[in-house]
Amino acid sequence: MASRSTQILEAAARVIARRGVRGLRVEELAAEAGVSTALIYYHFKDRTGVLRQTLEFINDRAERYTTDRDPDAPPLTPREELDETLLLELQDTVEVRENSSAWGELRASAVFDEVLREDLARATLVWVQEVAALLGQVQPMATASSLAEAAERLTALLEGLSMRWLSGGIRIDHARELMRGAIEAELAGLQRY
Q: For residue 155, what are the domain limits?
C-alpha cells in the first residue's frame, strides 16, 4: 500500500492533469486522495509544497517508466536506450497521459510563479543532462556543448509533440514517428563534431 504522502501526490498529479495548477484546491485534493485537508498540510505545509513535491513525484514516475527494464532481457545498445527512453514518453497509458498533462500544466503555470519556475528549470536541466548523456553514449566524440544543444532540442520537441498528441492535434503513432526522425537528425548532426 502506498504511503499517505504518495497517495496524496498521485491524487495531486490527477487533479493537476484534469484541472490545471490553478484548479488545484486543497479541499478537492483531499477528497481525491481520500484524506483530510489537515493531513495534506501536515505532509506538505502549504499549496506550494504540494506543487513542488508533485513536480518531483511526476519526474520520478517518468524516470521509472522510461528506464525500468526486464532484468532478464538482453541489455540495450546505447542507441536503443536513447530511442526507448524518449519514445516511452509517448505511450498511450493512463500514467503517461496523466504525467505529461500535469507536466504541461506545471510548465504553463511556471510562467507566473517564480518558485515553480525555478523548480521546473532545475527539473528540465536534469532531464536535458540525462538525454545529453545518452546521446554521448551513441556519439562519444561529440562535444559537450553539441550534446547539450541536441538534448535541449529533443526534449523541447518531445514536450511539444506530447502536448499535441494529448490535445488531439496529432496521432500518437505520428508523434512517435516524428520523434524517431528528430533523434536520427540529431545523431547525424552530432557526427560532424
A: 51-191
